[in-house]
Amino acid sequence: MSHYIDPERAQFEAFKALDRDQPIEMLNLVKFRDQAAYPADHALAEAGLSAAEAYANYGRETGPIIARLGASIIWRGNWQTTLIGPADETWDEMFIARYPTAHAFLEMVTDPDYRKAVVHRQAAVATSRLIRTSPAQGGATFG
After folding, report:
1. Is the dihedral angle over the CA atoms 20, 116, 69, 132 positive or is it negative?
2. pLDDT tens digits along 93-104
3. Domains of the chain by range and CATH?
4. pTM for the complete prediction?
């Protein structure tokens, strides 16, 4: 499984080039490491935290930030099995976060408190997918 933890420069530039004034929904698929891997100089480097514990730290520290920006988690699920797709892609966290605008997301990732908190995510995540979508109307059919 490939390791995708932070966006690459080209991906982030493509994100920023899209309309920033509309609501966005970010599909998050997260696979944890076996153990949290903090930088050696971090206070939790020797704490022996599981990746799930480190990710919980990330959630606690970023919760007030996303609330202040008007964002929320609108869907959360638990992975069961993959019917179509790579069999080695299993996910420990799956959720959709809604942001009132892409500006709000960009404000979040540049917030000084968020930048401190993201170390917990980096310590926890083995690989992830973060997919920007625009909200669309649901319905009774696939198409």
Report:
1. positive
2. 999 999 999 999
3. 9-81+88-133 (3.30.70.100)
4. 0.92
